[in-house]
Design brief:
5-stranded antiparallel beta sheet, 8% helix
Length: 171
C-alpha cells in the first residue's frame, strides 16, 4: 500500500496534481502524580453576633445574664485536637486573672464573668486542661457559644461599659 501511495504521488506530481496520503499518528504516554500535604491547622473567627451583650440595665442589685450570647467559630483539620481559651480581658483588676474581668467606662468598672455553659457554672479561661474548651476538629466550622454574667455589685455611673477579650485556639 505504501508503494502504491508513493507511486501515485510521483505520478500525480508529474501531472501537476496534489495528492495527500494518510499516515498513522504515533503516541506515547506516561503518568504524573498529584500531591498535597495537609498539616494540622485551625482557624478561629467570631460570627454575627460576635459580641456578648448584657443589654441595658439600671441598678445592678441582682445578677444579670447575657441578653445575647457571643459566638466563636473554629475550623480545624479533621482529627486535630484543640483548646479554645479566653483571656482575662483588657481591664481585669488583677492582671491575667479571669476571675477579675471588668468592663470599663471613663475609669469606672463593671465586673463580669464568661462561661462555656448556659448554666453559668463553668468559667471560661485560658488554662489548658483547666478551664478551656477542648474539642477535635471535623474539617468544618464548629460553633461555640460564649455565655456571661454580671454579678450583683455597686452600680457605677451611667455609661456604656466594654471590654475586649482575646480568643486563642491552641492545637
Amino acid at each position: 500500500m505504501k508503494l502504491k501511495c508513493t507511486l501515485l504521488t510521483s505520478t500525480a506530481l508529474v501531472a501537476g496534481l496534489g495528492l495527500a496520503c494518510a499516515t498513522q499518528a504515533a503516541s506515547v504516554s506516561t503518568s504524573m502524580d498529584a500531591k498535597i500535604v495537609i498539616q494540622n491547622a485551625c482557624d478561629v473567627t467570631t460570627t454575627a453576633p460576635t459580641d456578648l451583650d448584657f443589654g441595658t440595665h439600671g441598678v445592678l442589685a441582682a445578677a444579670v445574664n447575657e441578653a445575647t450570647a457571643g459566638n466563636i467559630s473554629v475550623t480545624c483539620t479533621t482529627g486535630a485536637t484543640y483548646n479554645i481559651g479566653l483571656d482575662a480581658g483588657a481591664n481585669p483588676s488583677t492582671a491575667g486573672d479571669i476571675n477579675t474581668r471588668r468592663m470599663a467606662s471613663s475609669g469606672q468598672y463593671v465586673a463580669y464573668q464568661l462561661y462555656s455553659n448556659a448554666g453559668h457554672s463553668t468559667a471560661w479561661g485560658n488554662t489548658i486542661g483547666g478551664n478551656t474548651v477542648a474539642s477535635t476538629g471535623t474539617g468544618s466550622a464548629q460553633s461555640w457559644p460564649v455565655y456571661g454574667q454580671v454579678p450583683a455589685q455597686t452600680t457605677p455611673a451611667a455609661g456604656t461599659y466594654t471590654d475586649t477579650v482575646q480568643v486563642t485556639v491552641t492545637y
